[in-house]
Write the structure tokens for this entry.
Amino acid sequence: MDMVTPVERPTQLLGALRDSLGAAAVLVGPDVPARNCNDWSASLPQTPLAVIRPVDAQGVADAILTCRQAHLPFVPQGGLTGLCRGASPEAGWVAISLERMSGIEEIDHASMT
């Protein structure tokens, strides 16, 4: 029988994710930047439980799996330029920021992508 309380489980899973992705990839508490609390909408900012900043697609998949295992709602964040709260977290949510995924891996000249 699992004796972990519901509050401890997200903390443990986020800690395990920090161990696998690196300390710079999982920000919690006072380390959560203000920019991740809202998009450009005029709504009031909400501080997420955590900001996960993976550097590759596998890190995004790991972040989503961790949130699902912990029953944590999450919101993806790209450039945070939206005006309709599509990237704004609610309190207790996790923001999955794509800000560290900024490199170009391949250019396909034939399809111009």
Remarks:
- The chain has one domain: 8-97.
- DSSP finds two helices and four strands in the chain.
- The domain at 8-97 is CATH 3.30.43.10 (Uridine Diphospho-n-acetylenolpyruvylglucosamine Reductase; domain 2).
- The chain has a mean pLDDT of 87.
